[in-house]
Structure formats: C-alpha cells, structure tokens
Amino acid sequence: MTAESVDPGGSLTDADLTALALAADPDAPIAEGAVPIGIHLAQMGASLPLWYMPPVARHGGSRWKTPFVIAVVSAFLLIDLMGLCNTYGILSLA
User: Whose CA is closest to 86, among 76, 71, 73?
Assistant: First the structure.
C-alpha cells in the first residue's frame, strides 16, 4: 500500500494506517514543504472551546494554601515511608 493508492475522499481504516506506517521509510529526508505539527495545529484553531476548558486563572491571596498543601503531602509521604496504608482514611499496616 502506498500513499498514492489511498482515496483522498475516503476514510482510512486502522489497517490502512498501519500499512502506510509500516511502508514508510524512517530514514527518508523530510520533504521541502513540510510544516511542523505545532504550526499546523495552530492554524486549525483551538481543539476545545473556551467555555469547555477555560484558561487557568491565578488568583492572589493563596499564601495560606502552600504550607497546608506541603503539610498534607508530607503527612502522606511519612505514612508511606513508615509502611502504613491510609486508604479510605483508615490507618493500617500495608
């Protein structure tokens, strides 16, 4: 199977894609007009709408959160280092 034998209007099956991948030469030089995938995807627009996954917004005033998170993570690491298990909030031997 070659790229020329594939119908551009038809859909490709997994078997077609596998055959094309196995027939490809990994040592072949990159084509002159090749576009990096990052630029190609940027031209297509966002893959998810902003209402579905908005950008991360950082809010100020989170100074109290950092020591709290460090304490909780440290407690779980200490429990693991002592060979104990804390699944479902019940401390027991692992």
Answer: 76
